[in-house]
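Extended Data, panel c. Modelled sequence:
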Amino acid sequence: MRVLHLISQKPDYTGSGKYVQEMIRQGRNRGHEPFLIAGVCADFAVPEDLVQPGRLRVIRFDGHDLGFPVMGMSDVMPYESTVCSSLTRLQIIEYKTVFFRVIGAAVVDFAPDVIHSNHLWMATAVAREVAPHLPLVTTCHGSCLRQHRLCLELGDSLKESLRGIDRVIALFEQQKADIVELLGIDPGRVDVISGGFNELCFYAEEDEPDSDVVQLLYAGKLDSSKGVPWLLRSLNRIEAPWNLHLVGAGSGPERDLCLELAASHGDRVTVHGVLSHEKLGGLMRRCDIFVLPSFFEGLPLVLLEAMACGCRIVTTDLSGARGLFAEPHPHMVRMVELPRLETVDRPYTADEPVLEARLAKALEMSISDVMNGVRPDEEYIRRITEPFTWEKIFLRIEAAYNRAVQER
C-alpha cells in the first residue's frame, strides 16, 4: 500500500513526530511504501533514513514557504513557534494555501492508496479538501482537541472537512468520547488504538543499584503545563536522598522558570536537554522512578518507555495514564490526584501548594520502596508493556487503513 503521511510540524523524537517516524518504519517493515509531507522549522533536517529520496516534501516556516514560525499544536513548544490562537486571518489563508498546493502535488506525483494525517486540525482539513476521493485516516494526539476548545472560531471552520475523515484513531476511550462530542464525528468511524514504544531502545537490565541516592527522572517539555515547576518545588519537601534528571527542552519564560528552579537545587538536578531514544533509554535504566506531573496529555507513551526500562511510575491522574495502567499496582504505579484546573492545562494559583504536597507524598512513598529494597515487579511490567510494542500497534493501524480503503 502507498501511504502518504502528513504532519504539520517537524517529525522529531517527541510526541506526534515520534509517532510519524514509527508509522513510516513499521509500515516499511510490512511492505508499505511511504511518502512524507512535514511542516518544519527553517533549519530542521528530516532523518536521512526515514524516507527514500523523492518521497519527501517539507513546508518550511520562518520566512521560507510560510512567513511565520512553525505552528505548534501546544501553546508552548520546545522551539520558537506560532500559537494557534494568535494566527491572523492572513496567516490562516497563507497556511491553507501552501499546504493545499504541496499536498495536491504529492497526491498527483505519488498516487497514494491512503493518506495518514496527524491532528484533527488545519492540515488534515486541507488534506480532506484536496483529495476527497482518497481514503483518509487521522490520528488524534490530544493537543488538537485542546485547540478546538481554545480557538472556537477557527475550529468551527474546520469541522465540516474533519467530519469527512474516513477513519479517526483515538489513543484511548475518553479521547474518543471527546472527539465525538467536540467534532460531531460518527463514533462508528473512530477506532481506539494507542501508541507504542520501541522495545529496541526501552528495555530493562538486571543491574543492581549502584548508589544510595534515589534517581528520579522527568522527560518532556520544560513548561508549566507539564507540571515541571510544581515538581521542582515539591522536592523541597522531601528529606530522603534524591537526584533528579530533567530531559527535554522548552522556550521563553516557561523554560527560564524551570531552569531557575532546577538551579536552586544545585547539583541534585541535572539538565540533559533533548536526548535520542537510545540515550533516553540508557538514562531510564539508570533511574529508579519516572515522574510525570503533567496537567494535560494525550497518551503519555513516555510512561510505557520508562516502565519497560524498570522504572517505578509517579504520574498525575490523567485519562491516558489510567488507560495504560488500568491494572493497579501498590508499588509500581502511583497516581497523584489533580487539583482544580482553571484551564485545560493550568491549575488555580491558590491550589499550587496542594499539588506540591500530593506530589511530594507520592514521591516519598516510591522513594521509600527503593530504599527499602522493594524490587520492580517484572511480571507486572511485562503484562503492562507487552501489548504496546510498535509492531503490535501497527497491525491495528494497518487494519484501520484497510477498513478506510474497503469502506470506499
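The longest helix spans residues 89-110. This feature is highlighted in the accompanying rendering.
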